[in-house]
Write a structure and sequence with these properties.
Elements: E1 3-6, E2 21-22, E3 33-35, E4 40-45, H1 59-64, E5 73-79, E6 87-105, E7 120-127, E8 130-132, E9 140-142, E10 146-151, H2 156-171, H3 189-194, E11 201-202, E12 205-207, E13 217-222, E14 230-236, E15 250-262, H4 265-269, E16 275-279, E17 291-295, H5 311-330, H6 334-344
Parallel strand pairs: 1-4, 3-5
Antiparallel strand pairs: 2-5, 4-15, 5-14, 6-7, 6-13, 6-15, 7-8, 8-9, 10-12, 10-14, 11-12, 13-16, 14-15, 16-17
């Protein structure tokens, strides 16, 4: 196993150091490095808002924050031999926090946005596995650091399909962010004009915000294009299920993982969403959660129609994916698998924003 390191200069924004990453999803973004399956990557990352919020920031700075550069990602990494139909295995080994974190409430962007229209900020000091803040006296939050965004590039066909369904959603009055060249990195050409925004999770993973993706967990992502083109960012020191105010304890971090391939597995299992598992105790594991297998669901109907903020639809899709897993990987019939879901499978909402 060879180790590859991607270093960044956190005193600079991603726009000032564009050779280290990007903030849109597009199949033509050039890789920052190439690796062999089974290699280890160590990737330094910026926070989601790319340094706009500091320990000196206040609520007015939150109001002025530009959301167009979100999320600042490091990558992509080209995995030799990866091709559509494969599953990319991201074996998460470490997420090392930086010393500063923040939680902000951006007007118009949260689950309870109608009730909390004012900007708000909590500035965190991260040290010795805990986060504390002068903005929340008496509160001490234990860390379970993970990466909010991990994903691969779409194929051109998939990207255009996603753009079409999200445009249709917006036309129906739903929440969707169209391509936006302002603040884009890379800043020109088709990538800036037509790259997908990184805010929603999709078939290629992306902004998952799954708090269980700590060190010791393995994420499985369907590969959509040659080389997979894996990227990572949006580190969280701690987060509750749902990330209800729109942000967790946001931070910069250094991410370490081993990247492997399951050849043809996504095609064979007809997978179109991410799954993840843990097969031993590790950081962030609750009692009884040192071994598990998890499926996920998106707000997409069987005919491909995109919805927004439809937790029932996402839960339905996650359960159907779990039933498929139990049938194809464990040998149960569908009614047996459904029974197992009812007595032994937990439903969690990872993000509602």
């Amino acid at each position: 196993m060879k180790t590859h390191v991607v270093k960044i200069d956190r005193s600079k924004s991603l726009a000032q150091e564009p050779g280290t990453g990007h903030n849109r999803w597009h199949e033509d973004i050039p890789p920052v490095l190439k690796v062999q399956p089974g290699d280890q990557v160590v990737m330094e990352t910026r926070d989601a808002l790319d340094g706009q919020i500091t320990s000196a920031s206040n609520a007015d700075d939150v109001s002025r924050a530009d959301l167009r550069p979100a999320h600042a990602l490091t990558g992509p990494v080209y995995i030799e031999g990866a091709e559509p139909g494969d599953l990319l295995e991201v074996k998460i080994q470490a997420v090392q926090p930086e010393a500063f974190g923040f939680t902000v409430q951006v007007p118009g962007f949260s689950f309870l946005r109608d009730l909390f229209p004012e900007p708000h900020i909590v500035r965190w000091d991260i040290k010795d596995g805990f986060a504390q803040s002068r903005d929340l006296p008496g509160v001490r939050v234990p860390g379970a650091p993970f990466m909010g965004v991990m994903g691969v590039a779409p194929s051109r066909k998939l990207r255009e399909s996603i753009q079409a369904r999200e445009a249709a959603l917006a036309a129906r009055g739903g929440i969707a962010l169209p391509p936006e060249p302002g603040g884009a990195v890379p800043a020109a050409g088709d990538i800036a004009q037509h790259g997908l925004r990184t805010i929603p999770p999709r078939e290629i993973a992306g902004n998952l915000d799954i708090k269980q993706l700590v060190a010791g967990t393995t994420l499985l992502i369907p590969v959509a294009t040659h080389g997979a083109l894996f990227s990572v960012g949006d580190a969280h020191f701690a987060q509750g299920d749902g990330e209800t105010c729109g942000t967790a304890i946001e931070m910069s971090a250094t991410f370490t993982a081993q990247l492997a391939l399951r050849k043809g597995a996504a095609k064979q299992r007809n997978l179109h969403s991410v799954q993840y598992f843990k097969d031993g105790a590790g950081p962030g594991a609750r009692r009884g959660m040192d071994r598990f297998y998890a499926t996920t669901g998106l707000c997409i109907r069987g005919d491909g129609q995109n919805e927004s903020e439809d937790v029932t639809l996402a839960a339905r899709n996650a359960y159907l994916a779990m039933i498929d897993y139990l049938v194809h990987e464990r040998g149960f019939n569908r009614q047996q698998a459904y029974a197992i879901c009812s007595v032994a499978v937990d439903l969690a909402i990872s993000e509602v924003v």
